[in-house]
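Sample entry (556 residues):
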Amino acid sequence: MSDESHAANETSGSLGSGAGTSMRFGDVSYAMLVEALGPVEVLHAPPRQALRFSWYASIPSTGGAPKGEGRRNALFLCHEEVARNLLANHPGCFCVVLVDGSQPPEWIAAGSLRNRVVAIRQNKRFYFYDSLLQSLFVNNLVWENEMDRVVYNHGRIDRLISLSEETMGNFVCVTDTGYNLIAYSRGIEPPGEGFRHLVDNNCYDRCEVAEIEGKVLAAAGEKTQLVICEPDERHPYPTLHYPVFIDNAYLFHVVLACTQGSLACQQDLFLKFVKRVVAIASEFWNTTVNLESPWHRVLIGLIDGEPMTEDYLEAQLSKTAVPASRQFRLLYLPFSSRKPFSERSLVLEASKNLNQGLVYPFMYQGSLLVLEHTASSDDAALSGNGVQRDIEEHLHRPFDMVAGASQVFFDIEDLEQAYQQATTAYAMRGPLKNEHEALNGSADIACFPFEHVLKYYILTEGHDADLVEYSFGHSILKRLAEEDKAAGTDLVRMIWVYLNNGRNATETSKLIHVHRNTVLYHIGRLEKRFDISFDSPLLRSRMMLDYHRLLLEGDI
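Predicted structure, serialized as tokens:
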């Protein structure tokens, strides 16, 4: 039986008379095709193309092109006459053309179709080339399916590597953000001193770390993207690097040492591989780190300003402690991209101990948010001093975490404004650190409350006037002014005189015509009620700012 007849008997698909194989596959790149044609004599191949093939068909007959084959991303194996008709009638196809002579036909070499054709010299039977290309597509499909099965079954990265050793044929390793070895190609000898040190010691040496940080991470920034490092004295071969970021967190670093095979092909194979690594990393992050409160999505919706009906919000909140809560404070704790993944998990667990456990920690845009809440009507329950001490103990000293904090608020629907306050406080921590250092001799602060950042914020160009209005409306002094109006008292005026007279109780008593002990009593009572100290310059500067706002509004 001729090879043409043999191929025709293996037909699957609808190519018509004289057809060979026709199959739907996964994703094969042009670089992979060129690599697979290594055993044959290639007469013509266009420069590297950004082509990917998901269909393969072979046409052993020389009688002309089949009808109805207009699929895009299709690769055909055929003879010259068939190829010319296919290319003319189907702009989306690409052909591997079998040529009898030792030179590519003139219509290929000089024509407009040259970038859609690979020409090879036919010195073997047709089915040899058909089998070669079928193997390329089938093996790729099997490999991708096996990797997908690992991901689907919540498998490990080292399993992905072992499945990929034969296909990629090069050494691959995965490290964490501390450059500690997680997994590597156990069936392939580590190439070069750097990778041998990694395998022997389970971590990169200092020179390798400096090279990765100086070349790779500097090029990638804080984004997941492929970085190619050219050969140098330390690595006489190209290396492909892929830093993996999930929710802006730097989790893993994947490297392939390209000691064999074309760089273009290895790059395409490597990207298929790291796609699955990222999937495993994402699942690991979401299940291990990404804390979700029972109403996580509601919180996110409130921050994003999504419209919610009162009935929906009430129904969601009824499942939580929120209906009984009277006070809230939001903490914003961004992770450094270099903080080890294992430590992030510990931070998240430690955050549950804040505010005696009355918290809802959750992830938002790569940062940890902690909603503190309390059913207590005690004004000191969520005081700035208390929050500062709490974060210092549980997060700052053990993990060097720093928080921005909103003011206390009383309506969960104000979460959007609270988020703005907390993130702004963190972003503007610089001037507050300088002020703290000038006052205390140290700039080491665990928490930056928005109440002390407001004075700097209103001086910034383009500040949000609505946020400023909201912030003044939720100050201690504003609450006291409202209480004075309701009770007919004049406590706000007493504090104003007390602050303007250098906290001198005697002078204050003379000016407001009350006994000195009365002034001291009210001052002490306020300090205890709100857990504040009038000895704090930060408190006094914020109160003076609030006073000027009240004077401007005519409220005092």
